[in-house]
Amino acid sequence: MTDQAYVTLATNDAYGKGALVLGTSLRNHKTSKRLAVLVTPQVSESMRAVLQKLYDDVRLVDVLDSGDSAHLALLQRPELGVTLTKLHCWTLTHYSKCVFMDADTMVLCNVDELFEREELSAAPDPGWPDCFNSGVFVFRPSIETYEQLLNVCAGKGSFDGGDQGILNHFFNKWSTSDINKHLPFIYNLSSIAIYSYLPAFKQYGADAKVVHFLGKVKPWNFSYNATTKSITGESQELFSLHPDYLTLWWETFTFSVLPLLMEHGVVKESQTGLKAEEVTEAMSHIHLSEPPPPPPISSEERKQKWEQGQADYMGADSFENIQKKLDSFLK
Ligand code: UDP
Ligand code: GLC
Ligand code: MN
Fold first, then answer.
1. Which of 277, 233, 282 is nearest to 253 (CA)?
2. Which residue among 84, 103, 282, 302 is least packed, with the fewest CB closer than 10 Å?
3. Which ligand is nearest to the CA of 19?
4. Strands 105-107, 132-139: parallel, antiparallel or unpaired by DSSP?
5. Which ligand is nearest to the CA of 210?
6. GO terms for biological process (predicted)?
7. pLDDT tens digit string along 1-60?
8. Domains, the chain, ranges and CATH?
């Protein structure tokens, strides 16, 4: 599908790392869509070169900043004025339909079915569920819509100082007009919601499809020990991110993204926090230039093989995986 794409945004190298993990997760789960990333001039040349390896389309755009410190103070996120830059996604008119995903999201499975939805489809915001969260949404690029959105910015402005305020004002029928435009919450599961309604997370969390590390603290603000698989950080807010998702983010980063960043000199070996043998291990995972691995066998085929006594003890049917499955059932 060349006229449909996932789109994300990075206005600096830190969010660039997020975009690389997101893009890797989409590729790992065999998306058939294009991958596009909007970057601003603050993103370094070398980071752009790495993004180019993973993304089909790396688009340079101007920063759009609300500069609205009053509303951003209410949101307690003074840095989010630049999220208006996200609105540039409507200018990607060589695509007929797109799914925007924040650079702090990651897919846990293939979510290409999102493209069956119409503009503007999104999941409820965990803080105010009559508003949608603008971390994941389906839209149709259109210069007309883009100009109308800029008019809202110039006129009324954004009630939260960022893109989510503008978009909820513009698509203000979202909460009442068409239930098909309400994406299930599992397409934008934010850490905040996990802790604010833990019983629901225990009940439905296993169905999660997209994780969103919403909030001030992002996965890339921590350090990771690849040997012990432990994550450390100065901030107490480490505990506001779910440890399993955080570990998955760091695993993806260490083995798929870091090798590319080292190859392009964005990160030096001494800055990785990894031991020499871990660096070698990480570098051996560079797989982007190699042919993709064979598709995993279906669960039916796997069941048949298992019943014929041909279990994949070293892979999908390893003791570790079986134990994980049991643990998740018992939880
Ligand atoms: N973003 C960016 N640079 C910034 C802040 C935000 O590129 O300095 C982009 C990035 O794609 C990010 C999105 O805007 O995921 C929304 O910001 P963020 O995810 O930090 O907001 P939250 O979801 O935590 O409210
Ligand atoms: C929200 C969204 C984010 C958006 C920000 C500013 O919390 O998660 O995507 O950029 O608000 O409006
Ligand atoms: Mn976000």
1. 282
2. 302
3. 1
4. unpaired
5. 3
6. glycogen biosynthetic process
7. 689 999 999 999 999 999 999 999 999 999 999 999 999 999 999 999 999 999 999 999
8. 4-184 (3.90.550.10), 192-298 (3.90.550.10), 299-331 (no CATH)
Angle at 50 between CA 47 and CA 51, to 5 degrees: 85
Which residue has a Cα nearest atom 4 of ligand 2?
A: 164
- For residues 48 and 330, which has the higher predicted lDDT (pLDDT)? 48
The answer to whether the beta carbons of residues 19 and 10 sit under 8 Å apart is yes
> Mutate which of 15, 20, 79, 84 to test ligand 1's pocket (most atoms within 8 Å of Cβ)?
15
Q: Which ligand has the nearest atom to the CA of 126?
A: 2
What is the structure's pLDDT at 314?
46
What does the pLDDT look like over 161-207, one tens digit per residue? 999 999 999 999 999 999 999 999 999 999 888 888 999 999 999 99
Nearest CA to ligand 2 atom 11: 164
Amino acid at 212: H
Which range among 120-134, 182-196, 227-241, 286-300 has the greatest average pLDDT? 120-134
Higher pLDDT pick, 230 / 95: 95
Distance CA 45, CA 154 (A): 31
